[in-house]
């Protein structure tokens, strides 16, 4: 089993060229997904069945199917429908980047809304009652009392989802995008050296994960500094 | 809709393969999770660091990368190892079914390790003391006291791990396993209807997820029944 | 406790015996894409079918070996062969010099050519009368190619500045051409004609280049791939292929799908 060091050193810069795309996919999908998650959360806890029921169905569908299938349906499947190609969304759906971001956002939105809901449910009832006793409206209670605490509670689970999202960006390589994974597969196809290339790529992803975990750890510490341990 | 005629049996057999991979991977995942959690909680430094390394590596690497690496790399590694013992062996190959099942078990197993570890820490220390008082060995305590108690706590997050397992089976199509997604791609090559075929695959997986979620709900009820004091 | 332990050991043993399958000599495992109609694909009955499959079966019956087919995505085909995932590649793989550096090939059993397909109305004028590509006219044209294919190598060498999108399979290649994500694709003209241009989906499309068969990129044809160091097997394959050519079998296989034979009538040796 030969280990071609020269090949690794030559390939790593090439793969790192894809890191820009990886980050674009990651941060854009995370931002859009978070926005979607908040909307879904508000619908879910609104107490009105015509808002919470569709939300639950949406979450059920997106958490119950593989993300790879979701990506394929959006990229390869939607163009089969005539009205999609004529619609105003076509410029976005035409591009693999648009499709990847759409699929990842819809998926992470479903997961994060449940994570946020867990955070909201974890807020001490006493605090909410105190807010009511002080005369705060439901809306004010939610914004000023529930949200900050819910966010802090949800942070660990959210950091896990963020890392999952980063790992899912590698699936964009299956719809022609040349992110780090896509470039790696191209190099492997040309050099027939899967072992070296894929191990180096794994190391790169591990470094990224480590950076993300440290960042979230720092964030959690900051948000919890007032909490007596 | 009639594009699907002739393909129903391919999807059916693909689903059977998905179920087979799921069951295999589930067994392996539970084993890995238990061993990993035990290693992390033990006093043994070596075991602890191996387990830590395991969780770090498999939680931080994309699943598709682990699959591809395992598929290509394992055959080379195993053949080299086997040839030390018996130079007559031309090669040892791991078929996609096993390469895929083992790969996704390793991945979800790393998450299960953390889940089980947390659950083990949640076991009432009083129960452990009682077991000691009764003279049970470490191993017996582990199997008869810790695991049943921990299982109740681990069940809800483990349900999520099971969902991850079933969804990761879709990725194994990339290394050539003849399951539902692969069947869909061949159907598309023949009929040119990607939307129809991928929706079918989605529905199949949705069906599997539903079954798993319902099973977990039943299991949770069963695991908690001794706690339902008369209300 | 002992019972549990023995059960555990038994379970592991059963699992292990399923995992490790040291294979003895005369079953030949054949790697192919399985989604490349009409050369190797799965038909509605669920069986593998196609020109490559027929050639494989024909060769196997002559040399007296059992066959086992393994499906593999194209861009991992050669790495998989080198990693011992299978013994032969019978997947319409062209015999090119760059591939010969890493592996061996049998004699060719099919000619290897490429051609560009694009929209009829587009009037892109990409090639001149001599059959050479006009680089300037490729500006703004999106080209679809299969990763690790001979078409990709040819394109990268001739038109390195072109806007290229790489695909994992030929099916996705055609899908995206119809969806308008690419303007032209370069691929096998036999398949293009049979599966696309002569069907409804391909009604608005046509060949937009002459047939390209530059030996440097397309080699002398399509052959059976195998790992280096298996000369005995290679000789047996060549004898079998010669038999199939001489007795007209290759022609019969081709006529199942095409109105013409697709193998090289003259026997050209691999250097």
- Helix coverage percent of chain B: over 70%
Report the major sheet of chain C: 5 strands, mixed
State the domain count of chain B.
1
Gyration radius of chain C, in Å: 21 Å
Q: Choose one word for the global shape of chain B.
A: flat
CATH class of the largest domain in chain C: Alpha Beta
> Within the CATH hierarchy, at the fold level, what is the topology of the largest domain in chain C?
D-Maltodextrin-Binding Protein, domain 2
**Largest interface here, residues on each chain?**
A-B, 40 and 39 residues
Mean pLDDT score of chain B: 85
Mean pLDDT of chain C: 82
CATH class of chain B: Mainly Alpha
State which percent range the strand residues of chain B make up.
under 5%
CATH architectural category of the largest domain in chain C: 3-Layer(aba) Sandwich
Structural class of the helices, strands and pairings of chain B?
mainly alpha
Strand content of chain C: 15-25%
Count every helix of chain B, treating DSSP H or I runs of 4 or more residues as helices: 8
CATH fold-level assignment of chain B: MetI-like fold
Word description of this protein:
- The complex is a heterotrimer of chains A (229), B (231) and C (271).
- With 229 residues, chain A is an all-alpha fold.
- Chain A is 80% helix and 0% strand.
- Chain A contains 11 helices and no strands.
- The mean pLDDT of chain A is 88.
- By secondary structure, chain B is mostly helical.
- Chain B has one domain: MetI-like (MetI-like fold, Orthogonal Bundle), CATH 1.10.3720.10.
- The longest helix of chain B has 34 residues.
- Chain B starts with 7 loop residues before the first helix and ends in a 7-residue tail after the last helix.
- With 271 residues, chain C is α/β, with parallel strands linked by helices.
- Chain C has 2 domains: 121 residues, D-Maltodextrin-Binding Protein, domain 2 (3-Layer(aba) Sandwich); 103 residues, Periplasmic binding protein-like II (D-Maltodextrin-Binding Protein, domain 2), CATH 3.40.190.10.
- In chain C, 35% of the residues lie in helices and 22% in strands.
- Chain C is built from 10 helices and 13 strands.
- In chain C, strands 5-1-6-13-7 form a 5-stranded mixed beta sheet.
- The longest helix of chain C is centred in the first third of the chain and has 18 residues.
- The radius of gyration of chain C is 21 Å and the shape is globular.
- The chains are: A mainly alpha (229), B mainly alpha (231), C alpha/beta (271).
- Chains A and B meet through helix 3, helix 4, helix 9 and helix 11 of A and helix 2, helix 3, helix 6 and helix 8 of B.
């Amino acid at each position: 089993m030969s280990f071609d060091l020269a090949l690794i050193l030559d390939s790593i810069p090439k793969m790192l060229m894809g890191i820009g795309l990886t980050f674009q996919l990651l941060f854009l999908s995370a931002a859009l997904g978070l926005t979607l998650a908040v909307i879904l959360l508000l619908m879910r806890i609104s107490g009105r069945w015509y808002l919470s029921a569709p939300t639950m169905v949406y979450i059920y569908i997106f958490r119950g199917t593989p993300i790879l299938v979701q990506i394929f349906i959006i990229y390869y499947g939607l163009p089969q429908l005539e009205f999609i190609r004529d619609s105003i969304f076509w410029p976005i759906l035409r591009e693999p980047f648009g499709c990847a971001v759409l699929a990842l956002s819809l998926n992470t939105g479903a997961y994060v809304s449940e994570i946020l809901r867990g955070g909201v449910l974890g807020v001490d009832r006493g605090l909410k009652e105190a807010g009511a006793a002080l005369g705060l409206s439901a809306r004010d209670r939610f914004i000023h009392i529930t949200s900050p605490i819910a966010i802090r509670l949800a942070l660990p689970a959210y950091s896990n989802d963020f890392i999952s999202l980063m790992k899912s960006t590698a699936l964009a390589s299956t719809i022609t995008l040349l992110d780090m994974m896509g470039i790696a597969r191209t190099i492997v196809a040309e050099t027939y050296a899967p072992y070296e290339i894929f191990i180096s790529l794994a190391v790169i992803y591990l470094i990224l994960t480590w950076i993300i975990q440290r960042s979230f750890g720092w964030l959690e510490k900051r948000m919890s500094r007032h909490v007596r341990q | 809709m009639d594009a699907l005629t002739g393909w129903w049996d391919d999807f059916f057999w693909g689903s059977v393969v998905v179920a087979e991979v799921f069951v295999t991977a589930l067994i392996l995942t539970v084993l890995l999770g238990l061993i990993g959690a035990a290693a992390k909680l033990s006093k043994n430094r070596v075991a602890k660091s191996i387990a830590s390394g395991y969780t770090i590596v498999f939680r931080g690497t994309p699943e598709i990368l682990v699959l591809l690496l395992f598929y290509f790399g394992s055959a080379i590694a195993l053949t080299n190892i086997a040839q030390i013992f018996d130079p007559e062996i031309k090669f040892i190959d791991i078929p996609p079914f096993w390469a895929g099942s083992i790969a996704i078990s390793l991945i979800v197993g790393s998450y299960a390790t953390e889940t089980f570890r947390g659950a083990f820490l949640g076991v009432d220390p009083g129960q452990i003391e009682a077991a000691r008082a009764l003279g049970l060995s470490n191993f017996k305590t582990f199997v008869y006291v810790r695991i049943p108690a921990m299982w109740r706590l681990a069940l809800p997050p483990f349900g999520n791990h099971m969902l991850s397992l079933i969804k990761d089976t879709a990725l194994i199509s990339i290394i050539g396993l003849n399951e539902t997604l692969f069947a869909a791609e061949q159907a598309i090559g023949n009929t040119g209807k990607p939307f129809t075929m991928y929706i079918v695959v989605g529905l199949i997986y949705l069906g599997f997820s539903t079954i798993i979620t319902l099973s977990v709900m039943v299991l949770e009820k069963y695991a908690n029944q001794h706690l339902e004091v008369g209300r | 406790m002992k019972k549990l332990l023995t059960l555990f050991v038994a379970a592991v043993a059963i699992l292990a015996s399923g995992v490790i399958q040291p294979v003895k000599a005369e079953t030949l495992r054949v790697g192919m894409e399985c989604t490349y109609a009409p050369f190797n694909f799965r038909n509605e009955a669920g069986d593998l079918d196609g020109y490559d499959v027929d050639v494989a079966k024909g060769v196997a019956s002559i040399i007296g070996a059992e066959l086992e087919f393994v499906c593999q995505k194209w861009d991992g085909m050669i790495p998989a062969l080198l990693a011992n995932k299978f013994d032969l590649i019978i997947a319409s793989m062209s015999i090119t010099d760059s591939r010969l550096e890493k592996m061996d090939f049998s004699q060719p059993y099919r000619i290897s050519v490429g051609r560009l397909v694009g929209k009829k109305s587009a009037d892109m004028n990409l090639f001149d009368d001599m059959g050479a590509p006009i680089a300037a006219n490729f500006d703004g044209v999106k080209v679809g190619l299969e990763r690790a294919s001979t078409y990709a190598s040819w394109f990268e060498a001739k038109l390195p500045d072109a806007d290229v999108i790489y695909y994992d399979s030929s099916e996705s290649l055609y899908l995206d051409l119809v969806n308008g994500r690419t303007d032209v694709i370069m691929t096998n003209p036999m398949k293009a004609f049979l599966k696309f241009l002569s069907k409804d989906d391909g009604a608005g499309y046509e060949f937009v280049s002459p047939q390209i068969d530059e030996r440097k990129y397309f080699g002398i044809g399509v052959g059976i791939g195998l790992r280096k160091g298996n000369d005995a097997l290679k000789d047996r394959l060549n004898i079998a292929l010669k038999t199939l050519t001489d007795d007209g079998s290759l022609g019969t296989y081709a006529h199942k799908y095409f109105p013409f034979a697709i193998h090289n009538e003259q026997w050209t040796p691999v250097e």
